């Protein structure tokens, strides 16, 4: 990408190559979680909405997490392949896994990218059948579309009955998280990028699925709450009342599907060019307003690139960067 219009940091910084294979690149990510869903829950609409926008760019698919490699979609069988994967999402009693991506080879994961995973465990209690949905959008698409069009796409993904509980939209990374070689190569960069750019979301959101059972796991450019979480946070008016006066006009709350709300931190997403100790003020303000429903157990996350620590000290510090609120004036003096 040569244009940096609309981006506070040149996205090329987050591109990495192994020879001619692109192993990592920045994307705009939509991530949603649910802890306990019904076997008949409607997740097909999200799949349909994604394909309606990006079907022509999808080259590879995988329908089993344990399947080592993605398979190229045969041109003459595209409709059949997409139809079979759609049927997997119509009955979730045994769980489901559908993954789609672009790229020049099965090992080059490029956006547009779609993944939905629904647990196959029997429902014996809350969290027994959870869902994680991750959509990664090319930044070229973001450059071509207005914020209103991005929000309309989010609405189409949510549809009327998607069983989301919380989630976020923000800059992330598209890469092959199943490749130990790629993770080893990219790990030092992940660590540096995440500490230098607080607007960058977790490298592998699948690792957030377990901590997501405790509630919101991050604050994005846009933070999504279902009706239950919105009510717990005091509704749109209660959340607005907790915004500082200096930031209130730059923060927008709008209704979304099923009584939920979307909280937008500023007109455009940002990577952030400062260290965590002086984090993005608008997202920190949203974190402050939602701290009343944040459970610090959700900060115990495995973050790719961070040294493994049984106490998760570094990971918890990163995952709580928007919730460990300080007055911005005090932070600027530090």
What does this molecule look like?
The chain has 334 residues and is of the alpha+beta class. The chain has one domain. It has ten helices and eleven strands. It has helices at residues 44-54, 78-88, 139-144, 147-158, 180-196, 227-232, 235-241, 281-290, 313-319, 328-333, and strands at residues 16-18, 21-34, 60-62, 71-72, 96-102, 110-118, 131-137, 166-175, 222-225, 251-256, 260-265. Strands 1, 2, 3, 4, 5, 6, 7, 8, 9, 10 and 11 form an eleven-stranded antiparallel sheet that branches. Helix 1 runs antiparallel to helix 4. The longest helix is centred in the middle third of the chain and has 17 residues, at 180-196. The chain is globular and about 55 Å long. The two termini are 36 Å apart. The model is unreliable at 1-5 and 327-334 (pLDDT under 50).
């Amino acid at each position: 990408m040569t244009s940096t219009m609309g981006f506070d940091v040149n996205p090329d910084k987050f591109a990495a190559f192994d020879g001619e294979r692109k192993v990592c690149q920045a994307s705009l990510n939509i991530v949603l979680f649910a802890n306990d869903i019904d076997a008949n829950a409607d997740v097909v609409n999200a799949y349909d909405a994604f394909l309606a926008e990006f079907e022509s760019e999808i080259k590879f698919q995988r329908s089993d997490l344990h399947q080592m490699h993605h398979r190229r979609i045969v041109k003459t069988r595209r409709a059949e392949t997409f139809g079979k994967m759609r049927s997997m999402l119509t009955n979730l009693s045994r769980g489901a896994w559908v993954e789609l991506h672009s790229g020049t080879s099965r090992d080059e994961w490029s956006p547009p990218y779609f993944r939905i995973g629904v647990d196959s465990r029997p429902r014996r209690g809350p969290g027994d059948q959870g869902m994680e949905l991750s959509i990664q959008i090319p930044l070229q698409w973001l450059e071509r579309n207005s914020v209103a069009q991005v929000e309309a796409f989010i609405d189409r993904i949510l549809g009327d009955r998607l069983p989301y509980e919380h989630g976020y939209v923000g800059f992330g990374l598209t890469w092959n998280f199943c490749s130990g070689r790629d993770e080893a190569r990219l790990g030092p960069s992940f660590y540096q990028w995440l500490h230098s750019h607080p607007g960058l979301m977790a490298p592998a959101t699948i690792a957030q699925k377990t901590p997501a059972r405790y509630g919101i796991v991050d604050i994005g450019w846009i933070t999504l709450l279902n009706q239950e979480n919105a009510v717990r946070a005091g509704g749109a008016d209660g959340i607005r009342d907790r915004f500082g006066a200096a930031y209130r006009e730059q923060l927008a709350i709008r209704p979304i599907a099923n009584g939920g709300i979307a909280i937008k931190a500023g007109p455009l997403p940002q990577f952030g060019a400062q260290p965590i100790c002086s984090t993005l003020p608008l997202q920190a303000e949203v974190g402050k307003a939602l701290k009343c429903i944040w459970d610090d157990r959700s900060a115990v996350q495995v973050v790719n690139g961070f040294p493994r620590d049984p106490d998760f000290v570094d990971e918890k510090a990163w995952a709580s960067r928007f919730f460990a609120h300080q007055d911005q004036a005090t932070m600027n003096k530090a």
